Amino acid sequence: MNPPSSLQSLPTKTPQPIEIDVVFLSHAHTPALHQITVDALASLEASEDPTQIRFLSIVVESHRDSGDYPAATTIHPRGNFGYHRFMNIGVQAGGAPFVCMCNNDLVFHPGWATQILKAFACDPALMSASPRCGQFHARVLPPNHDDIITGYQNGVHVAGWCLFVRRALFQQIGGLDERFRFWYCDDDYRLTLQSRGLKHALITHSRVDHLGSYTLNTLTDSRNKARMTSRQALLFHYKWGHRSWVLYWLKRLKYSLLRH
Q: What is the pTM of this model?
């Protein structure tokens, strides 16, 4: 028996696209830096079929005079920049089941997210992943590498410029440690995963190219640059090494004296 004609006219229900929050950090204090973020957003939108994957882009912009970005939610946080603090702000602004934490100087290649989602679907224990950078990983990976390479090595398995995770990961780690402002953020993240037994992998069929540290290279305030870079080593060695506040503050004092 055929269904009533009124039912025959109903449209077929199509599956909803998978939603991914993509959080970019930007400090667009020059037109060139603003354009880098715009280009990253454009390559992201062109990289996947929007009927299958929907990107919910969030730009956390630390330069107050920078305008909003097309096809993205733009957030201007108050207070001093901190990579982990600003990234937490962006992550908390979304609600998608997957989150991608990104630098703004990236080029997304077609199908990059599809490949990571396939890896997640095949391995429910996989909580975090990075895509391959065409230039960087060509220098560090063997010629006959696997499609999925699990591990925690910084710059090999963990590409800090692009971290793709299940949102459920943050229920286990409680967010990124905001004491880390720039340097050692990658190391703190990977050691947090490793210490908790949370699986991470490099997905080599997923490609996102990293152009370089443009924002850091434009910093002219040497004291601010030191706070975000070399001084972070003291905190890192405290957290993952000696765990002594006395030794940490003695090293901070020594560091400050040597810089004057």
A: 0.85
